[in-house]
Specification:
Elements: E1 6-10, H1 19-34, E2 38-41, H2 47-58, E3 63-68, H3 69-73, E4 83-87, H4 90-100, E5 103-106, H5 111-125, E6 133-136, H6 143-154, H7 160-163, E7 166-169, H8 172-180
Parallel strand pairs: 1-2, 1-5, 2-3, 3-4, 5-6, 6-7
Length: 191
């Protein structure tokens, strides 16, 4: 079983179209706090990011926010964080979150969430990292993405074993359990 002290969570700065997305963020924030794991996230008070952070703090959890300077200057920083950092750029924010997290979870989100998820997954695939990645599949948000990954496998661009390198669940506690028990995929990237 892996020791996971901190989890970087990528998610939308909007709420999305379903209340299930905020419910999932709230459940994950609470689950991380009660598991004794520090939440690492983008540091804002907006959308799912704010819901996630508020839930972790309400349950007595530690929250480490890494916000970009541009968002901080616009007043988007969450005021109640345990630890607060301002990064000079989006790239430096991403690098810092990778540095301090032991695992990663993606909630529903947009381009930024997908960029961060794919970046981490690629680094794991290239053996630059060995940190588990999870998808909280609230309201089936990631189901079309998982189908696309299956298409990559079928089309010969991704070894099938790499499909299993993502932990997926719609229940926060079960996803955390999967991350703790995740085994690194040892199949080479090239087919």
């Amino acid at each position: 079983m892996r020791t996971i002290k901190s989890v970087a969570v990528y998610c939308g700065s909007n709420f999305g179209s379903s209340p299930a997305f905020a419910e999932g963020a709230r459940a994950l924030g609470a689950a991380l706090a009660t598991s004794g794991m520090t939440l690492v996230y983008g540091g804002t008070k907006n959308g799912l990011m704010g819901v996630l952070c508020d839930a972790a703090l309400a349950c007595g959890g530690a929250v480490h926010g890494v916000v970009t300077n541009s968002l901080h200057q616009l007043g988007h920083s969450h005021p109640g964080l345990t630890t607060h950092e301002v990064a000079t750029s989006l790239r430096s924010r991403k690098e810092r979150m990778v540095e301090i997290a032991d695992a990663f979870i993606a909630l529903p989100g947009g381009i930024g969430t997908m960029d961060e998820l794919m970046d981490i997954w690629s680094m794991n695939q290239m053996s630059e990292l060995d940190k588990p990645i999870g998808l909280l599949n609230s309201e089936g948000f990631y189901t079309p993405f998982l189908s696309f990954i299956d298409h990559m496998v079928d089309a010969g661009f991704l070894p099938g074993a790499h499909r299993a390198s993502l932990c997926v669940d719609s229940v926060a506690e079960l996803l955390i359990h999967k991350l703790r028990n995740h085994l690194r995929v040892s199949v080479p990237k090239a087919l």
